[in-house]
Amino acid sequence: MEWKREDFLVTDRPQDLDIGIIHGYLHESYWARGIPRATLEKALANSLCCGLYHDTRQIGFARAVTDRATFAYLADVFVLEAFRGQGLGKWLVSCLLAHPELQGLRRLLLVTADAHELYRQQGFKDLQAPQRFMEIHAADIYRIGP
Ligand SMILES: CC(C)(COP(=O)(O)OP(=O)(O)OC[C@H]1O[C@@H](n2cnc3c(N)ncnc32)[C@H](O)[C@@H]1OP(=O)(O)O)[C@@H](O)C(=O)NCCC(=O)NCCS
After folding, report:
1. Which helix (H) or strand (E) holds 119?
2. Could you report the per-residue pLDDT of 74-91, keeping only the tens digit for each?
3. What is the domain class of 2-132 according to CATH?
4. Which of 24, 103, 111, 116 has its CA 20 to 30 A from that of 31?
5. Is the pTM of this model over 0.85?
6. CA 131 – ligand 1 centroid, Å
C-alpha cells in the first residue's frame, strides 16, 4: 500500500523501513527506552508497519500488532520533531487504520501518555469498561544495569 501527499509518502513496504531511524527514535522514547535493536527488528518483522517518508528519508513510523482478522494494537507512533505540527502524524495514523488488512476488526487498542486527542480524532474512545482490562507490564524490561 502507498499513500502520497506532496513530497511525503506513507508505505507499508518492509524493505523501505530505515531501522536505524526507527531504532534511534524508539531507543530514546519514553515508552520503549533502551529497546535492543534485535528486539525491534523482530517486532517489525511480525507487525504491520507504515513508514512516513519525506522524499526518500524516513521521518515517521507507526505499526499495528495484529492478527489481521479480529484485533490490532497500535504502537510506536512517531514523527521526527522537525516535521511535527503539519498534520503528518494524523495522516500517518489514518493511513495505517485505512489499511485493507485492518478492516472489520473487532477491537483496536493503544496506550498513550498524552496524545489522546490525536487518536480521538481517528475514532478511538476512552475504555468503556477499564475494570475488565488486565495487563502484565514489564516497564523496565529494556533497562540496562541496576
Ligand atoms: C504524536 C505525534 C506523532 C503527532 O504528530 P504530528 O505530525 O506533530 O501531529 P499532527 O500535526 O498530525 O497533529 C496531531 C493532532 O493531535 C493533537 N494532539 C493531541 N495530543 C498530542 C500530542 N501529545 N502530541 C502531538 N499532537 C497531539 C494535535 O493538537 C493535533 O490536533 P489538531 O490538528 O486538531 O490541532 C508527534 O507529536 C510525535 O512524534 N510525538 C512524540 C512521540 C509520541 O508521543 N508518540 C505518540 C505515542 S502514543
Report:
1. helix 116-120
2. 999 999 999 999 999 999
3. alpha beta
4. 103
5. yes
6. 28
